[in-house]
């Protein structure tokens, strides 16, 4: 008589929150940082923590600046290779979101050594290496620890001509807002944890979260692209609010223009919503105005934490066609204009 097969190992059972849903909520993070002393800010530091931008930028000379960022989290999926690939794509995205080109990466690895077999941990790293290879960069080192929950990510280093650097702070009144990827990754993840995600949904989730935001390099070179960021753990509303606060502008967006992953609106209506989504909205609800037609499912999508989410672009109206052409050229077929920045007290209005 054959012994029963062991159930497949599920990485997500080791983590209390997956992907960018692990991020500390905006309100809690603000309280933490409020009591932290500021370090010396050299003139060469072009971007620090002042506007919650995607990466630090340090000028070397008139034509070169180093871009440095880090991102890591617990598993959002159960397949080890897929987890590593998603985490690496997400980390490198912050380099592209500055209009920069990645140079190399360092691995951040924390694993429950007694609970995960070495080959599983190796597959996580292989997934990350595969994305770095696609980005054309090496994993040049890293650090590993024995931890209670699996953690994987990268330090990503890039380079940019300071003239092409794109901050999240430089949007202008009248700029059109373009979103590069559909929303709903967090909702897919919530459904996956409860065995309610279809094979088609998983395929859409994986394709989106492992698509490198390479259009950022070309967008950085467009003079009429004024600001750039990416949508990650704070959801579309949270990262759009960061742009509004930094530029002292108001954003008006139309929900019906926002690209969504297949089936996520129905999943949200069925209750597949992350705790991070709720915490996000509680953190910035006072700065958001939702029209009555925006129900609970729509609000969940607007605040849904996006692991390896899309680029968020502020560009002059006459540059929209060129921006969309860049996205289409690099296979981001869902990229779409979703609203505008206008003069006014920083907030987001959703119609």
Summarize the structure.
This protein is of the alpha+beta class and 351 residues long.
What descriptive keywords fit this protein?
alpha+beta; 351 residues; 6-stranded mixed β-sheet; disordered N terminus; 13 strands; 23% strand
Can you walk me through this structure?
With 351 residues, this protein is an alpha+beta fold. It has helices spanning 26-34, 80-96, 118-135, 185-193, 199-209, 215-220, 235-247, 264-269, 275-284, 296-303, 320-329, and strands at residues 45-47, 56-59, 65-73, 101-111, 139-146, 151-160, 176-179, 225-230, 249-253, 288-290, 311-315, 336-343, 347-350. Strands 8-11-7-12-9-13-10 form a 7-stranded mixed β-sheet, sandwiched between helices. Strands 1-2-3-6-4-5 form a 6-stranded mixed β-sheet, covered by helices on one side.
Across the major sheet, the strand order is: 8-11-7-12-9-13-10
For the largest beta-sheet, the strand count, sense and barrel status come to: 7 strands, mixed
| Computed structural class | alpha+beta
What is the typical, i.e. mean, pLDDT? Answer: 91
For the terminal residues, how far apart are their CA atoms? 63 Å
Shape: globular
Strand content: 15-25%
Helical run tally? 11
Order of helices and strands: HEEEHEHEEEHHHEHEHHEHEHEE
Q: Percent of residues in helical segments?
A: 25-40%
List how many beta strands DSSP finds.
13
Regions with little confidence, pLDDT below 50 for 5+ residues: 1-7
State Rg: 20 Å
Q: What order do the helices and strands come in, and which of them pair?
A:
Elements: H1 26-34, E1 45-47, E2 56-59, E3 65-73, H2 80-96, E4 101-111, H3 118-135, E5 139-146, E6 151-160, E7 176-179, H4 185-193, H5 199-209, H6 215-220, E8 225-230, H7 235-247, E9 249-253, H8 264-269, H9 275-284, E10 288-290, H10 296-303, E11 311-315, H11 320-329, E12 336-343, E13 347-350
Parallel strand pairs: 4-5, 9-13, 10-13
Antiparallel strand pairs: 1-2, 2-3, 3-6, 4-6, 7-11, 7-12, 8-11, 9-12
Helix pairs in contact: 2-3, 4-5, 7-9, 9-10
